Amino acid sequence: xxxxxxxxxxxxxxxxxxxxxxxxxxxxxxxxxxxxxxxxxxxxxxxxxxxxxxxxxxxxxxxxxxxxxxxxxxxxxxxxxxxxxxxxxxxxxxxxxxxxxxxxxxxxxxxxxxxxxxxxxxxxxxxxxxxxxxxxxxxxxxxxxxxxxxxxxxxxxxxxxxxxxxxxxxxxxxxxxxxxxxxxxxxxxxxxxxxxxxxxxxxxxxxxxxxxxxxxxxxxxxxxxxxxxxxxxxxxxxxxxxxxx
Length: 245
What we know:
By secondary structure, the protein is α/β, with parallel strands linked by helices. Helices cover 21% and strands 24% of the residues. Strand 4, helix 1 and strand 5 (63-65) form a beta-alpha-beta unit. The chain starts with a strand and ends with a helix.
């Protein structure tokens, strides 16, 4: 599994022959990528805020993985999209997306849509992406990535996501103000029991400017063994290569 961070919360995820793109928003200072250079098979949207769906219009005709409310909003505002399952998915569900399995989990946040905040996009979410289907039996051969979306700290990370969805690596927001800051994000990493943690959702706007080294110190302070990997914008990182270390 290869992960590419395009700044803010935008990730490209390659699982086998399948290309996923999470929360396309390329109007951020970390990336130089033209969104039209990418040709994802699936676009995953954690919620409908403008800094998470800002470039979804570049991928008209692709398959959206999002709540039905967000899918219909994108269809109304931006064009013709397929949707996983025909109408989207919802919290707790797992869908097969090519070579990937995608499980939607709740995030603690808001979900007013891009224009005005008057329209609800349903429950905001995070995604757990794996190359194997989640089961009650641990699969030591699986590779699993958790994109937490915009969220505050929540005990489901400790009580549900860690023991049952078993992520190897987690991308967690550290920007504070709108999401967790470095301290709470570090607690999340400890609760998730991951091997690697990737800081996201920071330095895009003045209210969320952060030093990721502060996050790394906070993770160490929890006693977690997770390695904090600070990616540069447009940088790729391969999970399978690091799991062999």
